[in-house]
Amino acid sequence: MKFLLAIETSCDDTSVAVLSEEGTVLSNVVSSQLKAHKPYGGVVPEIASREHLKNLPVVFEEALSGAQIDVEDIKAVASTRGPGLLGSVLVGFSFAKALSYALKVPYYGINHIEAHLTSPWIEKRDIPFPSIILVVSGGHSHLFYAESFEKISLISATRDDAAGEAFDKAGKKLKIPYPQGPLIDKLARKGNAESFKFPQPRMKKGTDFSFSGLKTAFIYTLEKNNLSLEKYDEENLPEWVFDIFASFEKSVVCHLVERTEKAIDLYKPNSVALAGGVAANTLLRKRFSEIAEKRGVRYSIPSLKYCTDNAAMVGFNAYIKWKKGLNSELSIDAFSTAEWRKTKEER
After folding, report:
1. Mean pLDDT across 148-174
2. Of 260, 83, 251, which is closest to residue 156 (Cα–Cα)?
């Protein structure tokens, strides 16, 4: 039997996965660097690179063990080649290319966002095309129109901040520790989302996103109501903290959903899919499923383990290319940023 090994080190999670020749995930090991970065309130690139160097050999062995295979059983190797923190990307990228060369097996350099794009199909292979895919993370907020795995077009993107970035910045204003997004999700579950009113961004044309105004409104609301925290103590937070995060979360999610609904109405897809780190947000998952059911279209929302950065999604994207023999040359380079030009006409 043939196996594909995939590596993901684009930011602060070290991950290695093994997939079968049918694309089934046999192991997906993720090592978090949360403790290393928490004192700094966010990811420190230099620390992330060093942690990857330390963690990758261990995670690699755990992934092989979890899949119950030996190195010699690997018949294809993949890794993220960007976008991401370049120092971090290079750790997994170099390891994967060296392994490919040593084993004399094909290598697949994978775009991190494209890996998120195809992750909704890991568990639901029968989701039909064409599909509208919302990819939301700390650095990205994009809508894509996919006619197939090979033909994916950008519909819209954020004009300023990404959704995850808005959550992070709002959290930092109230001394919420890193990672802010998951903690805001947790706190918002205890709040009244009607307590504070935040504006909804409005664009006359297209389906682009904008979150900078919401971030500014959050800061203005704190100042206007003289609200602040001296320190974060989860056991003794005032009620307004839960309420303001519930209200802010509602506004961010409403904007994401409203833009997605407009894209569904414009492009009439057979399915919709949600992906990226922010896809783990409780309210967004609920609202996204509701709009799909309301319009009678099939939908896929990955399990939480496939929303945040992981090697299984990298491996699945590589699996699609592996089946078609579309391997990468070992001479390719890694990259830190990626730009998508809109290839679907704005409507």
Report:
1. 93
2. 260
Q: Is residue 342 one of the residues assigned to a domain?
A: no
DSSP string, 274-310: EESGGGG-HHHHHHHHHHHHHHT-EEE---GGGTSS-
> Do both 167 and 94 map to the same domain?
no
**Number of domains present in the structure of the chain:** 2
User: 8: domain range?
Assistant: 3-117+306-324
Of 186, 144, 175, nearest to 283 by C-alpha is: 186
**Beta-sheet pairing, 131-136 with 271-275:** parallel
Do residues 215 and 98 both lie within one domain? Answer: no
Please state, in angstroms and rounded to a whole number, the distance separating the CA atoms of residues 218 and 225: 11
Rounded Cα–Cα distance for residues 99 and 78 (Å): 10
Cα angle 130, 21, 26 (rounded to 5 degrees) comes to: 95
Burial class of residue 171 in the structure, from the number of CB atoms within 10 Å of its CB (0-12 exposed, 13-18 middle, 19+ buried): buried
Sequence length of the chain is 347
Q: Are 214 and 247 in contact (CB under 8 A)?
A: no
| pLDDT, the chain, mean | 94
Instruction: Give phi and psi for 200, each to the nearest 5.
Output: -100, 125
Same domain, 286 and 173: yes
- CATH code (residue 67): 3.30.420.40
Percent of the chain with pLDDT over 70: 97
Is a pLDDT exceeding 80 seen at residue 342? no
Q: Is the separation of the CB atoms in 139 and 164 below 8 Å?
A: yes
Judgement on whether residues 319 and 181 belong to the same structural domain of the protein: no
284-298 per-position pLDDT tens digit: 999 999 999 999 999
Could you tell me the pTM of the whole model? 0.94
**143 and 81, same structural domain?**
no
Amino acid at 119: S
**Alpha carbons 344 and 154: distance in angstroms, whole number:** 6
Residue 49 near residue 87, CB atoms below 8 Å = yes
* pLDDT tens track for 216-255: 999 999 999 999 999 999 899 999 999 999 999 999 999 9
Say yes or no: 160 and 223 in one domain: yes
| Whether residue 171 is found in the same domain as residue 258 | yes
**111 and 130 co-located in one domain:** no
DSSP tag of 189: T
